[in-house]
Design brief:
Blueprint: H1 6-34, H2 47-82, H3 84-90
């Protein structure tokens, strides 16, 4: 693309000024039409909200239990593989 000449820059600045003068007229009319009060969000107080919390707590406790179980198994296998006496019993490969 060729570079802009000084004349083209002046024309572009005039076009931008004209657009900026016309935009407030258009934006004021559209904002008056489009401004509406948002509907308030209602929080459910019935049993459906309580069941969601109950299921979340149940799933979270199961996940924590599984994570702790896996970590303890890994630690047990690590220490078993470190001891020489148990290595011969279980025949772990170092």
């Amino acid at each position: 693309m060729p570079k802009k000449t000084r004349y083209k820059k002046i024309l572009a600045s005039y076009r931008n000024k004209l657009k900026q003068e016309q935009l407030p007229l258009i934006s004021q009319t559209t904002t008056l039409k489009t401004v509406q009060e948002p509907e308030p969000i209602t929080i459910l107080e019935d049993s459906s909200a309580n069941t969601i919390v109950h299921y979340f707590k149940k799933d979270f406790s199961k996940s924590i239990f599984l994570i702790v179980g896996i970590i303890t198994l890994e630690l047990i296998f690590y220490f078993v593989s470190m001891s020489n006496n148990l290595r011969t019993v279980f025949k772990f490969i170092p």
